[in-house]
Structures are given as structure tokens and as C-alpha cells.
Design a protein that fits this description.
This protein has 14 helices and 9 strands. The protein has helices spanning about 1-35, 105-110, 140-155, 170-180, 200-205, 215-230, 230-245, 250-270, 285-295, 300, 305-315, 340-345, 355-365, 415-430, and strands at about 40-45, 50-60, 70-80, 85-90, 115-120, 160-165, 185-190, 370-375, 395-400. α2 links the parallel β4 and β5.
């Protein structure tokens, strides 16, 4: 009995020691966060992926070149794997609420057991200044934000750093590498566009050639069918818009047209199945449901991404629509400048596109050989404006998934390709 009691005491002692040791480790990272002067607030978060996870608010200059514009708080989520581990800085291009989820873990962090510094983009969700002065919403300023955060956190995490993001976040990772080439050691932009104009033009050409002629015809025939049935489908279309209380900058007839024009882009972007497109013999309900599932009016009626469209109009660029096959059925005469008409707020109507950013990025990529891995999907329209043309560099790597969409990631690549990508990153981390 005495022996049994002794064992119980030892177990109890070990449990208490483990708890105290864990508490000490937790206080280490919390203490280090408290020592960063720019962090105005820290809140502990629950995580099933990390021993410790924190929501912080990082003080940034609205205008990094001039203090007079004031400051704003940028939301940064810190997920701690270890002080000796590499660190992924997620360069989110939009809002970052999803990073607060208990199960969140970015792909590269999961594959290589890294820390995560997740950065919500300026002018989105909680990282929005009190006054929306659009002149300070620039790609260079977003890179300055990331540089300030990197500089502060590099003291905590001195190991290798990887910059990564998806879509506009991937574009942001590329922008960050361009303006601060020596910050991160590796960049992995996923499905990142590099547009040369507000209506770049390459997307439309891509959509005219993607997949097979048979698949493209099936998509075009469906778009025409939706336009032909306008009178019968419009009441249900209007009902949805009213129920959701969407506010549009054009008439419902015009929005209907734009939803039809958007259909082919959205279809390929998200990797939809051609087999599921209803035939011309389908009922109105079947046609309408598929139409709304692929290209509903919410895209043209929600306001949460106004900041993005301001950026697109100013320097990030976007895509246009090919109206030629549908001219006789459309209520609009032209889709030119639709982004300005449908998406820009009144105080941003005077914004004009500046090609300087894309020129700067192209020049940087041509003149340098940074460790960058570009990942794209074959049928994703954004691949039309992807960085797929650098084939004379030793360190710039390109992976295009056959049949892949905008959802393409390292984990979705074919096994051989996935292993190659992971081996390259592992090698870079060891160098």
C-alpha cells in the first residue's frame, strides 16, 4: 500500500511539474509579445494545432513615409510551434477572420511544422483605419506593413522565414518579396495573378482556349440559354436580390447580364464539373439553380471587398468580359469599365490605373533569382496572368496542376509533383 501511495505522489508531482513547465513556456512567448512596442493588445486563442496561439493588434503607420497621417491597428495572429522552428508569414490579401478558427493551420506550416505570423491586409475588416483615405491603400504600403511586422517578430523567431498567400494573398507575397527581397528566405505564392491593366485582356483569350472545344461550347450554350430565358427567370432572380437586400450600382437587367458574363470565369476558376451543366431541355428551376450556384448576384451586390476593387482599379488590375457571343441577348451595349461602374465607391471614381507596380515586379523577377515557388491550376483563368514565363532561373520554380483550379495547393498536386515541391522547400530550409 505504501508503495502504491508513493507512486501516486510521484505521478502527481510529475503532473504538476509538467503543468508548471508548460505555463513557463507559455509565459515565454507571451512575455516576448509584450516586449514588442508596436503591439497594442494581445488575446490568447484556442487552437487544436498549436500549443499557443495569440491574436495581436499591431500599430502601423497609415502612411509609412509620413507620421502625420496617423496610425491604425493591424490584426496579426501568432501561432507558436517553437522558437527554433521556421516561420511562415501569411500575407493575406483580404480580411483574416478565418485565421481565428480553432482548427486553422496554413498548409506549409502543417507540412513543415512552422510558426505562423498571419497578417490581415490593411483596409480590410479589423485592419481598417478610422478614415478611408484611398491614397494610402497601395501595394508598397502593404509591403511596408509586412516589413514592420517581420522586423519585430524576427527577434522572436530567428530561423528561416517563408512568405506565402493565396490568390490576392499570393500576389501580396510577391509584392512583399519585390519591395523587401531580403526579408523572407522563401516565397510560395499560390495562384497569384500579375495583371497589367484594369481589364488585362489575357483572361478572355484564356477562356476562349481552355479545356476542349466541346466543353467550351457547352458553357457558352448554357449562358445563351439563361439569357434566352430572362423573362421567365427574372422574377426569381429579383426575389433573391430583394431577400438578400443586395444593393447594385446598375439595373437588375444589367446585373443579370453581368452574372451571365461572369459564369464562364467563375465556372473554371472554381473547377466546376461540365457534366453537371443542365441541358437546354432542363426546366427553368434546374437552369436557374445551376446558374445561381455558379454565378449568383451576390458578387455584384455585396460591399465587403470594396477595398479590393479600389486596389484593382489603381494598380492590381483585373479582368474583362468577352460580350461578342452574347450581343443579341444582352441589355448592356458594352461591359467596358464595368469595375468602375459596378464596384467603385463615389469617392474612388477618379482613380486611374498605374502600371508602375506590375512593371516593378516584372523587372525584379527578370533581374533577380529569388527562391520563389509559383503554384497554379491549369484551368484557372487567373493562370492566364500568372508568373509562368520565368524558365531561365535556377531558384524560381513553377508547378501547374493539370486540370487544377483556383483551389490548387501543394497538397492537391499529383504525388510526384507534390513530393518534388516539398523536397525543394525542405532543401531551401536547410540552406
Amino acid at each position: 500500500m505504501k508503495m502504491k501511495k508513493l507512486k501516486l505522489h510521484i505521478i502527481a508531482f510529475l503532473c504538476i511539474f509538467a503543468v508548471n513547465t508548460n505555463a513557463l513556456a507559455q509565459s515565454d512567448i507571451e512575455k516576448k509579445l509584450s516586449e514588442i512596442p508596436q503591439i497594442a493588445k494581445t488575446e490568447r486563442l484556442e487552437s487544436t494545432q498549436f500549443a499557443e496561439k495569440y491574436l495581436t493588434y499591431f500599430t502601423q503607420k497609415i502612411n509609412p513615409k509620413n507620421d502625420s497621417a496617423g496610425t491604425f491597428l493591424q490584426r496579426v495572429v501568432v501561432s507558436h510551434a517553437g522558437f527554433d522552428r521556421p516561420t511562415v508569414i501569411v500575407t493575406e490579401g483580404y480580411g483574416g477572420a478565418y485565421a481565428l478558427r480553432i482548427e486553422y493551420r496554413e498548409e506549409i506550416s502543417r507540412l513543415f511544422n512552422t510558426n505562423i505570423i498571419f497578417v490581415e491586409h490593411r483596409y480590410f475588416l479589423e485592419s481598417t483605419p478610422a478614415t478611408l483615405d484611398w491614397q494610402y491603400l497601395t501595394a508598397e504600403n502593404s509591403a511596408e506593413d509586412l516589413h514592420a511586422i517581420f522586423t519585430a517578430f524576427k527577434k522572436i523567431y530567428p530561423n528561416k522565414w517563408i512568405g506565402t498567400g493565396i490568390s490576392k494573398g499570393g500576389q501580396t507575397a510577391l509584392i512583399y518579396r519585390t519591395f523587401f527581397p531580403d526579408d523572407v528566405d522563401i516565397s510560395v505564392p499560390y495562384v497569384a495573378p500579375l495583371c497589367y491593366g484594369v481589364e488585362d485582356g489575357r483572361h478572355e483569350t484564356f477562356l476562349r482556349n481552355v479545356s476542349t472545344a466541346e466543353n467550351r461550347k457547352r458553357i457558352e450554350d448554357f449562358q445563351i440559354e439563361v439569357l434566352k430565358r430572362r423573362e421567365r427567370l427574372m422574377p426569381e432572380f429579383e426575389k433573391i436580390c430583394n431577400e438578400k437586400q443586395y444593393k447594385f450600382a446598375a439595373s437588375l437587367d444589367e446585373i443579370y447580364d453581368y452574372c451571365v458574363l461572369e459564369y464562364s470565369f467563375s465556372f473554371w476558376q472554381w473547377g466546376s464539373d461540365v457534366v453537371k451543366i443542365p441541358p437546354a431541355t432542363a426546366t427553368d428551376d434546374e437552369i436557374f439553380k445551376h446558374f445561381i450556384d455558379i454565378s449568383g448576384p451576390s458578387y455584384f451586390g455585396e460591399t465587403r471587398n470594396i477595398s479590393f476593387f479600389v486596389q484593382a482599379a489603381h494598380e492590381l488590375g483585373y479582368y474583362g468580359y468577352d460580350t461578342e457571343p452574347f450581343k443579341q441577348y444582352l441589355s448592356i451595349k458594352s461591359s467596358k469599365e464595368y469595375l468602375k461602374k459596378l464596384f467603385l465607391p463615389q469617392d474612388a471614381q477618379s482613380i486611374t490605373f498605374d502600371k508602375k507596380l506590375s512593371d516593378t515586379i516584372v523587372e525584379f523577377l527578370k533581374k533577380n533569382d529569388p527562391k520563389i515557388m509559383f503554384i497554379y491550376g491549369e484551368v484557372d483563368p487567373w493562370t492566364a496572368v500568372g508568373v509562368t514565363w520565368l524558365n531561365d532561373k535556377q531558384n524560381v520554380k513553377l508547378f501547374i496542376q493539370s486540370g487544377g483550379s483556383h483551389r490548387t495547393r501543394i497538397s492537391t498536386l499529383p504525388e510526384k509533383m507534390k513530393n518534388e515541391a516539398m523536397q525543394i522547400i525542405a532543401k531551401w530550409l536547410e540552406e
